Amino acid sequence: MLRKSVTWMLVVLLLLGTLAGCSGGGNESSAQSTGGSSGTEKPEDSAGEDLPENLAVLNTESDYPVVNTPITLTLMGSRSGSQGEWEDLKFFKKWQELTGITLDMDAVLSDNWATQKNLAFASNTLPDLFYAGSFSTAEELDYGDDQKMLLDISGLIDTYCPNLTAVLEKNPTVRSSITTPSGAVYCLPYINDMDRDLTTKYWINATWIEQLGMETPTTADELYAILEGFRDQDMNGNGDTTDEIPFSWSKGIENFYKTTSWFGATFDTSTMMGYEDDGTVFYGPFTDAFKQMVQWFANAWADGLLDSEIFEQDGNQLKAKGQGEELILGAFTSAGPYITLPTEYNEDYIAIPALTADNGKQEWFRTSGLKRGTFAITTGCQYPEAALRMVDWVYGKEGALYQMRGEAGVDFVYQDENEETCVVQWPEGYDNFETYRAKEITPNSGSSTPGIGGGTLPQVVNPLNDWINLQVETQLKPYWKLAFPDVYLSPDDTEKAASILADLKNYLEIAVGEFITGKRDVDADWDSMIAELESMGAKDYVAIYQEAYTSWASNS
Ligand SMILES: [Ca+2]
């Protein structure tokens, strides 16, 4: 504690030096870059007297409470209908009690959120803080860079958010992804670092592979041969060689796109953008790997390796196939084997590992786990420093855990001495922890809150998930490539890119479906598809992302 309090005192002294030096005004360079240029520090006993109000309220002796003099901040946020009133949630009570800051909250139901948020800006009736604000990057740039209604906190984070700063140091791409092209930071994110949430898993029955006398596949060709075995043999031993479905999933064209990594190109399957190590970006469908992927699935379709309902069935229909009397699914994708199959089969299925492509690449994509735009301070807020120290709580283990699961010993109970595992519990009257969590504990159930989640927090004991974690750690994570970083597009480019993407997406989905099901021929008709995509503006689209990526890379 002593070391901490000295740190806070030093912060105040440094700030005093800066303020004396440059008499207010400068918003960008204020807190952080005081460095050695502030000259002589004021003697300690005069601190406090000439401090401006926003700093005078801060507690410099210890982390909490954040303020010595009670202050009230107004807060506006998006509330899910599953949640209790925010004033009644344990998280908000604890947060206010701990920090000494009273929150005057305006929680707007999520259906009305976009309208109410924009109205608040249009009418200039802004709160001090937005929590669970769901700001798009275009909104950040509009309300921040252009209208100066959101506060640029880039110079304050390192000073007032020690927990967040530690997280950013551990994840350097996150800092570039919350920094706008102009170098400002307007919004803080939610950072999910739970490995198994960051990547898609394709499961395959390892026991069946063994029955075939084959090995875990290392290339798409080897995978193909295994699926042929599943098609031809009576894998489940019921005397019928035809009931096995080699490869299946619930509909979603992206399930095809994602496997392009097996053929040597990794990209984000919502924007369809990827990047090379040299900093050039590419549109996924323009790669050789994408063409190979489509050809592979066209062959697989023609050879009866794919579920004939793969284009139309939903998750429930897939699950019905998984839960039937006989085990019939050889390979499929879902969050975990036990999500689709009876739990006793969970460990029969391994994640299809990152396969080595013809071009020599062995990659599997992961997402960033970042949800931007969750928390912001407005320029009218009198106490931005206190607000930042307050929100920093949810970027540390204690606050993040409270925001996620509530109170230790009451809402969850540790299962080991090192406090690495826990079980959750809920009072009578609730069906499960999730409904209780939403109604009584936290907006983290249903709203996009700031903070950290997942990997670094104690895990809820679930042996079924342990298997999934092991698969991700061994088969996929060593080959991970971030599919595409979270970049900023200008409001104009956002609109333009979205409009081009919508056209590209619709056309591509139909074309790929036709190639795979044999209505179009990959060899004969591929070039005409590429030409069509180009005529729809694919090159302009790529240029927008090239600029955004280059700007992002220069921030990192
Ligand atoms: Ca069979």
Question: In CATH terms, what is the architecture of the largest domain?
Answer: 3-Layer(aba) Sandwich
Helix count equals 21
Oligomerization state of this entry? single chain
CATH class of the largest domain: Alpha Beta
Helix content: 40-55%
Secondary structure category: alpha/beta
Q: Round the mean pLDDT to the nearest integer and report it.
A: 92
CATH topology of the largest domain: D-Maltodextrin-Binding Protein, domain 2
| Percent of residues in beta strands | 5-15%
Principal-axes shape call? globular
Major pleated sheet: 6 strands, mixed
Strand order of the largest sheet: 2-1-3-12-4-15
How far the N terminus sits from the C terminus, by CA atoms, comes to 33 Å
Whole-number tally of structural domains: 2
Q: What would CATH call the homologous superfamily of the largest domain?
A: Periplasmic binding protein-like II
Give the tally of β-strands. Answer: 17
Associated small molecules: calcium ion
Structure description:
This protein has helices at residues 2-22, 53-56, 90-99, 110-122, 137-146, 157-160, 162-170, 172-178, 206-211, 220-232, 254-258, 288-302, 315-322, 337-340, 384-391, 397-405, 433-441, 463-476, 491-516, 522-535, 538-554, and strands spanning 71-79, 101-109, 129-131, 187-192, 202-205, 245-248, 273-275, 281-283, 329-333, 349-351, 364-366, 370-377, 412-414, 421-424, 451-453, 459-460, 480-482. The radius of gyration is 27 Å and the shape is globular. It is built from 21 helices and 17 strands. The protein is of the alpha/beta class and 556 residues long. A hairpin with a 5-residue loop joins strand 7 and strand 8 (281-283). The protein folds into two domains: 63-193 and 372-401, D-Maltodextrin-Binding Protein, domain 2 (3-Layer(aba) Sandwich); 202-366 and 484-554, Periplasmic binding protein-like II (D-Maltodextrin-Binding Protein, domain 2, 3-Layer(aba) Sandwich). The two termini are 33 Å apart. The model is unreliable at 20-46 (pLDDT under 50). The longest helix has 26 residues, at 491-516. The strands form five sheets. A six-stranded mixed beta sheet has the order 2-1-3-12-4-15. Helix 19 (491-516) packs across helix 21. The structure holds calcium ion. Calcium ion is lined by residues 234, 236, 238, 240-241, 243-244.
